[in-house]
Amino acid sequence: MKKITQLLLLLNLLLSTCLSVSAQAPDNSLQASLNESLKNSTPTLSAHANLQQDAVQLTWKHNKENSSKKYIIEKRTNHKDWEEITTVVCATQKTIDMQYFHLDHAPSIHPSYYRLKMIDANGKNDYSNVIRVYYNKYKAKTPGISIAFGAPE
Q1: What is the CATH number of the domain that holds 57?
Q2: Which one-letter DSSP state was computed for residue 142?
Q3: Each residue's pLDDT tens digit, 90-135
């Protein structure tokens, strides 16, 4: 697993170096393509987590310009497959930003991983960042404790 991680880091470094070098050319079609893609891309879906009593609270924002239809909250424990734990239907009001949250009242004592799967009006889907949660039932009695999160190892 360590060698795979090192290989991915090296690949990421090589790709970022190639992109930064090729982006310096003024008439670069790759750079123009990247700029166009970034300009037309949907906003990044970003989720956060906090401990609330005996639950894990997931929060995220729904951008008013976002065409999402629903969010599926997925959870994974012990490096198993992702499981759908609930679906949240988006508000029909598209003129304001919306804040959403979900409480997972069944947190695992093992490290858990959460992510959001956004499904838009056209049926396309996008995923949020993956949140790693270490739930300690003894420390969770204090509400509002922030927890560490990041990509799975």
Answers
A1: 2.60.40.10
A2: S
A3: 877 667 778 888 999 988 888 899 999 999 888 899 898 899 888 8
